[in-house]
Amino acid sequence: MPFRMSGYIPFGTPIVVGLLLPNQTLASTVFWQWLNQSHNACVNYANRNATKPSPTSKFIQGYLGAVISAVSIAVGLNVLVQRANKFTPATRLLIQRFVPFPAVASANICNVVLMRHTELEEGIDVLDNNGNIVGSSRIAAKHALLETALTRVVLPMPILVLPPIIMSILEKTSLLRSRPRMILPVQSLVCLAAFGLALPLAISLFPQMSEIETSRLEPEIATATASKTVVYNKGL
């Protein structure tokens, strides 16, 4: 259940709040990025195109690659910001709040590709207009992973960009200045609202059952059906 799309928001929001906490240490950055990409890896695996069996060893390889790339990107960006002496402390803190987005977006692409790389090797089933399997296509698998990767870039945009902007404004209000303990609950609500906006927006970019012209696929698939187009399950 935690890895269904319907569970993405309730289980993912606490992680987003952790990613956006100010004054992150190296240890906390590594922890939240690891937790985020671990959750993403399981979501990507649970919502993949499962027409071909995937051994546990492939899952472990993909998971380790996805998490290591995510943590490396996030830590590298944080170190660069901390070493940028030309920024004032206030500017450096503001920039650090936006570091999670490029780190998460680029790591999400690695995560999708690594967690579903078996599809690229073996292909995915494509179906004709009557729902009959025409064949297995690696080209369709590339399209499926590209579309899914694009949704994973769009998804963190509102989640990791809007809350820092909104919170930088709200933290200057007299209400939060006089009640600093309210900052975390308010930030949690802002993240929850941003997540609720972003998830349906990102998933709706491409239909789950995507269509592609047979002329763009492998010759053996194009000759195996009279249909001009076939469909494939890109996953979510």
TrEMBL record:
It holds the Pfam family SFXNs. One of its GO terms (biological process) is amino acid transport. InterPro entries: Mtc. It is found in: Mitochondrion membrane. The keyword Coiled coil does not apply. Keywords: Amino-acid transport, Membrane, Mitochondrion, Transmembrane, Transmembrane helix, Transport. The chain crosses the membrane at residues 60-81, 93-114, 153-170, 182-206. One of its GO terms (cellular component) is mitochondrial inner membrane. GO terms for molecular function: citrate transmembrane transporter activity; monoatomic ion transmembrane transporter activity. The keyword Ribonucleoprotein does not apply. Coiled coil: none annotated. It comes from the Eukaryota. It is a multi-pass membrane protein. Belongs to the sideroflexin family. This is Sideroflexin 5. The lineage of its organism: Eukaryota, Metazoa, Chordata, Craniata, Vertebrata. The gene is SFXN5.
